[in-house]
Specification:
Length: about 325
Amino acid sequence: MKRFFKPIEKEGSAKKPSLSPSKNGAENGDALPEVDVKKEPLKFLTWNANSLLLRVKSNWPEFSNFVSNLDPDVIAIQEVRMPAAGSKGAPKKPGELKDDTSSSREEKQILMRALSSPPFGNYHVWWSLADTKYAGTALLVKKCLRPLKVSFSLDGTVSKHEPDGRVILAEFETLRILNTYAPNNGWKDEENSFQRRRKWDKRLLEFVVQSSDKPLIWCGDLNVSHEDIDVSHPEFFSAAKMNGYVPPNKEDCGQPGFTLAERKRFGAILKEGRLVDAYRYLHKEKDMECGFSWSGNPIGKYRGKRMRIDYFIVSEKLKERVAECEMHGKGIEL
């Protein structure tokens, strides 16, 4: 999914809004190269890579050409699935790629070689990684754009990373960019399913309310389909079960990402945070061809079933600047 911003001209001026350079660059310990600091970010791309290493090995020329043509200022990636640095039994470094074994060194070299080739050499990369090949996020920002601060948790702590590397937050002078990979709701009221997702949504709600001092662009795999229009077959997803299990609370019933409980909480986050779904703001009607970002298993009852779970969410004060928001993928179908 991509999204464009239109610069807003100030009254009495024909100049576009721009960022003032930070004296020390990003305040997260990473030294940025000396480049001319230009405008605020205006063009954004979000991508659930479902294993970035696998994409480098199989789809990289295609993705490289896509990025070259789109020329986004910011690229947000979810499900990097690269382990954090740190040997077995030692504390992990979620901001660095693992390289303490021969296989991990080789994988890191493959990935970094791809990210140093055109057009990716024009970007600075930040990582937030899980301990294993699971989840994880990356944020690529053009080197001509200097974030004032890059952090890796919803409380804005620079040194602290969310479990499984699910958050990267970049703050610029005029706005914040939040890249998240939301945990799947699962099918049962267990610690790693309903309970984990409830806690996540509660913290997201607190974050958007407390961060209202500056416009927000929130993107990524949010693992929720807000309205009926956001799934191909609403009745199918509402009635979905895992091995016949029915949760005690009716609002927890259905496909993870489309339960009434999740959808209500997501709606509350948008309302309380004064946020707008950029894609739905521009696309009012259901698009059965290009309106979804996840596809079910092509074999079995999920064949042809689709959901929109990847988003660009923007502050209400930014919605008039959204010029375009499109999806360029439908999920994997064999």
